[in-house]
Structures are given as structure tokens and as C-alpha cells.
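hi support,

uploading two proteins for the ticket. first:
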Amino acid sequence: MPTYEYACAEGHAFEQIQKMSDPALDTCPTCGAPAQRKVSGGQGLIFKGSGFYITDYGKDGKGPRKPEGGDAPAAAPKADAPAAAPPPAAPAPNKAGPASGTA
């Protein structure tokens, strides 16, 4: 059952455990003034016990979350990326020298 927070016009604040189907309280138990249910954000929910895996939580429980991209350096090539082709080789110089017209 959820715990609802209330506040009255006189400044008293109190909590009440109620079913979700129960009507909201309308009077302060301390002074009898009209009370209103405050809107709250609720609490976090953590499942504990042997029936739950560590992966059921938002993080592994051993430290802060790891970034989405991983810890690999940006300069290292990825395994699934194609390797860059080497630049074309320059033509080798002619070792025979310039060709002359005489044989």
C-alpha cells in the first residue's frame, strides 16, 4: 500500500498509509483543519533476494555506469571496420638509364 503525504492549511504535514482505492483524507488529525494530499514523485524500487539477477538493475552494482561507447581509444581501428588500403606505390625508376637511339 502506498504512503500518501498530506498538508493542512495550518502548516501541519502528515503521512497516511492507504489503499489506492481509498478516498483522500480531508481533515488534519492534529488540528482538524482541511487537508490536501500532496503530489509526490514516489520512491525507487529495488528488488532484493535470490530470485533477481544483477542485470535487472540499471548498473552492475560494482561502480558507476560505463559510457555507451566503451573505453577503447578513438584512434584504434574497430574490428568490424574495413582496413584502409595502402597508398599506391610510385613507379620504380628505370635502372638501365635513358634509352639511346643506338644499339
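and the second one:
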Amino acid sequence: MRYNEENLTHGGARRGAGRPATSVDKRRVEVLMNEGLSMRVIAERFGVTAAVIKRVIREIKNGQTK
């Protein structure tokens, strides 16, 4: 099978493949960052990794919403 944009989905060649998205309240992350909390502390509060919080902060700065 040849792969192209039409039969590829996010995360891999099979439909539903890949890691499920992590849901984090962007507004709450922004408030906590403005209060001076570190990414690590915010991540602990949400039960996710600091990398997830870093991605969320980047999306906030770029004006992306999901």
C-alpha cells in the first residue's frame, strides 16, 4: 500500500494510531504561569509532563486554540 495524505492520519498510517491527545486547560495554565509557577510545578498539578505544559505555553503564545 502506498501512503499519501489521503490515507494518513495523525499519529501513523492506521486510523486511530498514535498517542491520545492530553487535555489541559490553557486558560488555567496561563493563569498559573502569570502567578510565577514553574512549568514543572504546573505539570505536577495537571498530572502531565513538563513537555506537555511547554507545548501548551507555545500554543498560547502562538494564539492557537483547540
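thanks. also noticed: Helices lie at 26-34, 39-46, 50-61.
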